[in-house]
Amino acid sequence: MNEKTDGDSVEVNNDFALQILEQLPTPVMAVDLDLNLIFMNDAGLKLAGKDWAEIKGRHCYEVFDSLHCQTPECRMKQVMGGTEPCTVRNEAKIDGKSIPIEYTAAALKDKAGNIIGGLEYILNITDRVQQERKLQEQSRTIMEISTPVIKLWDRVIVLPVVGVIDSLRAQQMMKTMLKKITETLAKVIILDIAGVATVDTAVANHLIKIAKATRLMGCQCIVSGISPAVAETLVQLGIELGDVTTNSNLQDSLADAFSMLNLEVVQTK
User: Fold this and answer.
1) What is the CATH number of domain 145-260?
2) Closest-CA residue to 178 (of 189, 164, 162)
3) What is the pLDDT of residues 160-210, one digit of tens each?
């Protein structure tokens, strides 16, 4: 490699190119067609915790024992077979410690364009994965908080829903409700959607699925909080809730629940 730039003249030769690779903060390694290591920069050696003399000529999978190593998922083998460069996540085992990584693999070619090996650079994404797990945990916590199942009466529970019902939240609602039915031996569950601003075909389908799932658990589902606007929307969309009991308010829903359980509220003096 010999290049010169206009203006401030800087000659880029092979030695200088090697110095650039050595100074990169990202681990870079190269292998021959047999996956023998032919180069690794300082950042790579630091990640591996080895000196170059220890690993020179060894198979890359002996140094970075990743989940993809010696499997069809090895992107290094794929690019050496002619596929396009790609970036994927992986998990490497170094000195018995698992490290989440993201690596990019590309074919290593000679001046004639022949593939003579593979080139790979690696990112240690431990911090990113930890942050993602933290965000996922926070998301689960928020979902649980936003799906509070309340025991309203003996064998009667209520789930007040506020906000948007999407596929993820519908799954969380179903999971929470079924778990609560098992815990409380509930026979009637009231799904109060008075706090749901918009009910469309997708939301209605979610409600039907939830009602069917609770029925399989031996529990009747009552959908409460059907406002005039929601009722009009359901009619306009031609959505049928089937045999799901519906009400406009929680009071009527509770009365229906008592009726299902053969209970009667008697006013005393």
Assistant:
1) 3.30.750.24
2) 189
3) 988 888 888 888 888 888 999 999 999 999 999 988 878 888 888 888 898
